[in-house]
Structure formats: C-alpha cells, structure tokens
Amino acid sequence: MDRRKPYAKSVVQAMQLRIDTLEAQLADLTGAVPLRDPTSPRQRPPAAMSASSRSLASTSPDLHEQTKPLLWSHLGGSPYADVGSSTSRPGTANGQFLTLRPSTANADSHDIDMDRFRGGLALNAHGELRYYGPTSSYRAVLVPPADVLVDATPNSPQLAGPAATLQALRSYSLTRAPIPTAAPCEPVFPTRPPELSPDFKARLFRLAFEFGLAHYNVVPERQFYQDLQMFPLERTEFCSPFLMHTVLAVGSRYLERGEDYPPEICGLYGDPDTRGDVFVNWARFLLDQEWYNPNMSTIRGLLVLGMYMAGRGFDGPCQIFVGLALKLSEDFGLNLGPHRLAKVPGSSLPRELFLTRGDCFWSAFASDCISSIYIGRRTAFTPEVLDVEIPPIVAELDYDEPQYRSSAFSWSSRLMVIACRVLAEVYSPSAHKTADQRRALVPALHLELESWNHDLPSFLRANGNAKETSKAPHPHILALNMTYHSVHIALHRPFYHARSDGSNDKDKSEDLSTEKCLLAAANIVRLVRLLKGSAGLARSAPGVQLAAFSAGTVLALAAFPPMTDRASGPPKRDSARRTQAKKDLYFLVSALKEIGPTWTTALTSAGVLEAIIATYESKEEEEEARSASGAPDPPLQPPPHVHTFMPTPPVDSSATLSLVAGPPASYPFPPPAAAFQSLLNPPTAFAAADLSPLSYGLGIQDDTADRLGGMKQW
C-alpha cells in the first residue's frame, strides 16, 4: 500500500505553472511550438510568468553541475547561476549603472514596471533620501504629497489636519525616530537596572523564552541557563551580562499592565510603555566589553537587541545592531560547514562546535530575512554563499516547553532559504536582470513554497478553525505558519490585479497571484484570531505584527477596489469579497492595537491602516455620489510643483508626539482622497483620476501606463 501523502491541489497547480514556464522558455529558444498545443501559432508566455531568450542563463539550472554545496544537496536543489545575479555589483568603472536614471541604451522596452522588482530612492518627510524596497509593506507611505506646496525653511507653516497626520505617519514609518532632526546630546551614563528578586528574574526569563525567543532559537535556553548558573558574571558562547540584559528586556515587554513589578524596570520611571528599556540601555553600555573579544553570545545579544528595537518601532537602531551581528557572523564564517576548514581536517574538531555555529548562523539569517522582507531590503547572505547544514531536529529539545521548538527551527530555516531567494533573485536592486527574467523565477519559488507546506509535519501546522481556540497550537507554531503566508504575499503581491476578465493568459496568471494573496491574507486573519482566543495578542512575537500588516495591505485592495473594477466580475461575488475583506481589515486594525502595548510598532501599523480605511471610505462615497448623479469624472490635472525637501513637524507637534506612544485611535475627519492619492503615488506629468491609491505602494500592475502611452509611474 502506498502510504505517501497525496499532493494537494495547490501543489499540483504550482507544478503545472512551473511546467508551462519551462515549456515557454524552450519554445523561445528553439522557435518550436509548445507541445501542449501543436496546432496553435507560437505565442509568447504569459507576461506575469514569462521569460525572454536572454533569461535562460539566469533561470535554468546548470545541467553539467557535478558537485553541490552541502546546503543545496541537503535541500535537494541548486541555486540558479547567473552572471547578473544579485551578488553582482550594480555598477561599472565608468558608472554606467550608478546613475539615478538608467540610460536609454540600458533600458528594456518591456521593463515598464521594473520599479516593482528593484525599488528606488524616495524622500521621507524630513527631506532625507532613503531606499524603499519592493517588498516593503510601508512603501505606500514613502512619497511626499504632490498637491501641497511645502517650503523647506524650518520656520515655514506646518501642514494641518489629515495631511499633517499622514506626514507624521510617513516620517515615523520610514525613519522610526521621534525627533530625527534633534541635535545629538552628550553621552549620559545609563541608569543601572534594579536588583531583581530571583523569582521575578526567573519570570522574565520564562516569558522571554516562551513568547519572544521561541521562534528562531535566537538564544538556546538550556545552554543559557547552564552557563548562567556556572559563570553568572563571565562571558561564554551562550551567556554574558550583555545577552542576559537583552533577554530581561524582552521578558519585560510581556508583563501585563495590571501586574505588580518594580517601576525601576521602566525607562521612564513607572511608565509601562517603556518597561524593559532600562535593561536595553544598560545592555548597550555593556557592549563596550564585547568588542575586544566578540563571540557567539555577542551575535545573539545583538540579534535580540535588534528584535527589541524593531518591536519598539526604531528600525534605525535595529538595522545597526542586526547589521553588526551579520558582519560578525561573516567574520566568524558561520555560513560555512566543516568541509570548508582549510589545512585541518574538519573531523578533528567536535561536531557540537559546528552544530552550535550553524544554529547561531541560522538564527542570524532568519532575523535578516524577516526584517529584509518587511522593510524591503536584500539579505546580507545570498543563497550562493550558504554552505552550512540545515539545523538538525533534536528530539530531546522538542519535548521542552514550549514543545517542537527544534522542529520549528529546522523548518523555519528551510522557509528562510526560500524567502532569501525571493529577495535576492526576484526583488533585488540588480540592474542586469530584466522584468521577464525576474517573472520567470516566480513559478519555481511558488512551487518551492507549496512543497514546503506539503512536507510540513502535522504537529507544526495550524489548520484549526478560528473558533476552535482550545485546540490552537503554541504561539510559536502560529508565528511559523504566519511567516509562510507572509512570504507568499511578498512573492505574489506585485502581480495582484483587481481588474481581470480571464480572457488571456496574462489575466489568468495574475488571477492566480491575486487569489494566492487573498488566500494568504485570509489565513493570516484566521491565525491571528486563533492567537487572540488562546494565548492572547499581548503574547505576540514581533513577527505577528509583520504578518498582520502585510495581510492588511492586501485586504485594503480587496475591500476598496476602484469603481471601474467592480463591474469586471460577478457582482454578487465581488460584493461578498469586499464585505468580507472590510470585516477582516477592521479586525486586523483592532488586533494591531491589542499588540501595541507589547510591541509599540504595531500601533504605527494600525494607524496607517486606519488612514487608508478613512481615505478609501471617503473616496468611495464620492464615487458613489458622482455615479448616482451621472456627473462626469473630474478632468486630469497636472500636479503643482513640489519642493525637494519637506519640513519636520515641530517638536511640540501633537501629531508627532502622539506617534511616539502610538498613532491616534481615530481621526476627527477623513483625509481628502486627492491628497492621499498623491501621497501614495510619485509625482508624474499627469495623474489618472481613477488610479488606485495603493497601486504604486504595493507594486500593483495597472493599465494607467497603457492609457497614457506606456509612461512610467516613477
């Protein structure tokens, strides 16, 4: 009897999509007609999943490859070799690809939407140039409003009303600093944390390991406790005073407001919003004793510190600390296995050493992938340099509470490899890959994601109904499943298309991406409901906020499509989809606010989604009223001149200060639709009145360029 698990429909669908892409590539090379339709004339492959003849070197594996690195032999595959891969330096000696605007000779006539793959530069609300990545969920708030004249002088009048609120949201989302233009202050000796009772310290450790650090094995719990008891004041590979204080800081975030705890653990005495900050400030001071002889506990402490800063809403310090951890990981060679040991046989060193090194690397790699997907960056370690074994599953550790952490760590590492390929091969800032080459990689990555989910053990799944909260798995398993759906959204969101009649292959392929985004968003909503009904949203890891916000951006597209797109599909189906999407979107806003007391960055995400809802509802009412009255659409107007820099809201601005503790729960009046549309879209020579406000921010294909003669949006 064949006891193998049958493949799900989604896996078979992904396999067929991959087969169609390979057949299209073969037809382009040989000039032959695909075998599946020998009587039809030769056609180009679907635009969303096709590859030109120039893309063969980057999309086909090397058939003559004799040896594989340890990682790829373990995963049963090999990376794509490509002279124009993301590891190539995007520039030449004469600066050919280093200009802000590529020359016409290097521009591909088919790459009218390369921005969705490569990202670009944008000015934040403070006039600072920042890179916005193609996978960032915050891309929609990076572009200054084009319909408001703003002076660059510091004493100029400030924006008022919704424009000021959205300006502050955009600034806080990109720079994540309360007062980014404040003058640097003199270094101050940090406050020493209070002496904690053994029981309270043990409680903070337990909260940190159970809810904050259980996902990617950032700090091995057993070894941490062992070294803490044996060498409480010394630095080892698994424990140090620096690492211990970062763990205490994470545990402090999971204390509920009604609990009794020393007010001295707050950065501002007695302020519950700053609980744990005193440990972080002291840990940053203790970094001074780490630089002279860094070890793996230094790397782990930097990762925890970066996670804490990201959860508190400060992406700048997060990138600094995580970047230091990644450079140390590269310096230690953690991405290389024992077979790369020069002159000394790898077998002469204990295997435990290489397992420890590998675990440390995969923790750093996961932190890098998660933050890179969220803010739209390329990972520091590309797939070509991964030459270390996937973390093996240790059955003994799986029985420690919370259970299955070792299995989840191993499977999450496999998932992070796929996520890394999404960033490095499809959405890299490389100037050498065309849009067709990038699109051709999507079916293979989609198949890998579906295969990963198919092979995932049953005890790591979260397939329960949202109402069956008593059967919900541990939050770290819920977070693993949310991450899987978030990677699906990151891969398919650029191909989301609200308008489609399914009349051609392009529409059909985009329909698949659209349905995959909506399905992933619905699953994230279900998992968030399970978490709320079981452990509670206050016990969320920072990654839950990432998944919830990614799903919210997709649901906003489904809940508020343009009026012209609503007539393209069955009215009953479209109406039901919009109603359900609105319901789920409102739930996610409420859920993010519940996560906010633990990780304050969720309040910023909730504020952005609230601004989107208010703007869309206002625009929806205007469109319905205009449609009912039979009035014509407003004529196209070129946007006014926009100055290069935007002013910083004053220090005493209520909009800016409110964002430090979280955005306002509601707005007194919704922002005008025109202002919000120009906020989300870059200035061009013309502006389409019916252009979806989120079309640029999420990299969504729109027919506006076709109607304007193929003009680029950027």
Automatic annotation (TrEMBL):
Biased composition (Low complexity): 40-61
Disordered: annotated segments: 32-64, 619-648
Keywords: DNA-binding, Metal-binding, Nucleus, Transcription, Transcription regulation, Zinc
GO molecular function, one term: DNA binding
GO biological process, one term: DNA-templated transcription
Positions of the Xylanolytic transcriptional activator regulatory domain: 318-397
Database matches in SMART domains: Fungal_trans
Pro residues bias (residue ranges): 632-641
Name of protein: Xylanolytic transcriptional activator regulatory domain-containing protein
